[in-house]
Amino acid sequence: MSSKLLEVTDLKTYFPVRKGLLRRTVGHIRAVDGVSFAIRRGQTLGLVGESGCGKTTVARTIVRLIPATAGRVVFNEVDVLSADKNKLCQLRKDISLIFQDTYGSLNPRMTVGSIIGEPLKVHRAATNGPCLRRGKLVPAKAGITEQVVALLSKVGLSGDHINRYPHEFSGGQRQRIGIARALALAPKLIICDEPVSTLDISIAAQILNLLKDLQQESGLTYLFIAHDLTLVDFFCDVVAVMYMGRIVEQASAEELCRNPLHPYTRALMSAIPQIGGCPRHRRAASGCGIPSGLNPSVGCTFGPRCSLWLGHPCSGAGPDCLSQMPPLVESSDRKGHFVACWRVSVPA
Amino acid sequence: MSAEALLSLENLCVSFFTQACPERSRGAGVVLAVQDVSFSIRKGQTFAILGESGCGKTTVALAIMRLVPARQGKVVQGRILFEGRNLLELSEKQMRLIRGNKISMVFQEPATSLNPVYTVGDQIAEVIELHQNKDALASAPVAEVPPPQGRGLKVREDAVAILRKVGIADPERRALEYPHQFSGGMQQRVMIAMAISCNPALLIADEPTTALDTTVQAQILDLLDNLQEQNGMGILLITHNLGVAAQRADIIAVMYASRIVEIADARQLFAWPLHPYTQGLLQSLPHLGSSVERLPTIPGTVPEPLHFPSGCKFHPRCRIGCTDMRCRKIEPALREIQPGRSVACWYAKGYEKKIKN
To answer: Could you tell me the CATH number of the domain that includes residue B123?
Structure first.
């Protein structure tokens, strides 16, 4: 077994833009444009970026909820993107998801017991007694109810909650239900898509601690998607910063926060309102809004917002910034720190 | 309360009556959404209300705007003094002259607050026309009366000028666009443009940046700062983000379960939080570059408004108060223990002394 549980190589997801009466494809939105990363077993990789940068699309492409345009995803030595139905069924057991919206991701008409029990039923990991299926007698496994109660207590809810409906719970409790459902099939990888961004501060801390405890108990691997750098710094081992469908910087959490190299990462960090910092201080400018993914400019996509580029004409952009997208390369003086910026990676 | 206060709330209490137990039956079925809230905002000041969801911070804002839904809710006690007048005693007609004109509000979700079927310019123009240009329109000669489908030229120009003021590029063109053609940050700028179009004395910003990215959040908060510098308006900033409050507010009130538990100058609050709830909130926030394994948390959850605990509402989650009989039985009132610092906790330093005196 290799130490890498998930390896993504040059993943691309393009969405066609259709126009006109015949809905002809007139262009593509490059939601994910050549993303590569790997997660080791038991590790947590954080994916950070502003809304619309493609981080959720990466997650959805990995689990094949969205078809990939190009690239390779290897999970546990299985090629995900070319997996057939049977293999995919196994993959769905091994990879599970926790969603941001705790209202939307739980069916309001189902009880907590049936929500958490559904994956067990679908994957026949448990039945409520011996039953006939396709003419064969399926022997009883540990009952669904017992398993659901065990899962509930694992995420800090009581077994009495099993017959209640999602609306009877607070946001934090609902997220715990979502986590219990994700844990139901004992997955190897959990993709957490902004799991705490809708929760209150004190509740978010509880949920993050819970996720950490679960990781220590059962050696889970997380892909943690967030827009908040402080959360990612606390929670993750490795952090990848995404901008416009590409990873622009990747390093260990500690290294990234101590020594951000890419101007975008710096802008993100300086935009975090800090407690105890000088109030109302001015930040490193990060210019106008996000450019559209439909017609990316030639050259570095961050160019129009870049502090090394904008307003610094004399020290300014080399010809490369304007003509070519910089590749993600390891920094020459810092091992394991990857950055995609002409101004940083190419020593003067 | 000082005379220079722009807005001051005195012992404001707002209740909601649930359907199961209508207003007649007192006790059960009554949600005490806001209890005994008093504070004042001066001109040019930014006052932040900090609290978790459900603590009543938005209800305070709605009460100031007199927008508490009349069927379910009611201001049961207290006074809201704005420029010396009690807003609660005004008629609806008088209130409409203040609402959107002297006090205006920016909401959390710009996408749902804007009308999708009108252009952005039209929506801003509507505010101006309603409040400012009414007389101008009435006295205008017949030839200048605007065509039925459009608004007056002057109003439109005003709308464009305000869009420019809030940092929207190419405002002449963008004024003719619909809200869905704007990004989240730009929509919030439009909301702010609408809110400041009549030069309000007080701007209530209810979680103005919660739905936005951090970089955009910084831009929007900068914009509010700049507008405040120009107009000298007071801002009531409602937020659950400690960082935003720390950076942008002059004075912060921390709310928990319908009451203010602590009021202090922003710097002081974060340097020496007095209430255990404020201390817990500060600790449970991850910091950039700190290498902690686990986040310290406040145990338990925010109590439901129908089933508030007895005594101090924080006691079941408090590390000091959970065993103390007094905390369980008697609710501490908000008391000023130092100039400009108020707290509601039996165990806060200097709290008891104040009672004896």
So the answer is: 3.40.50.300
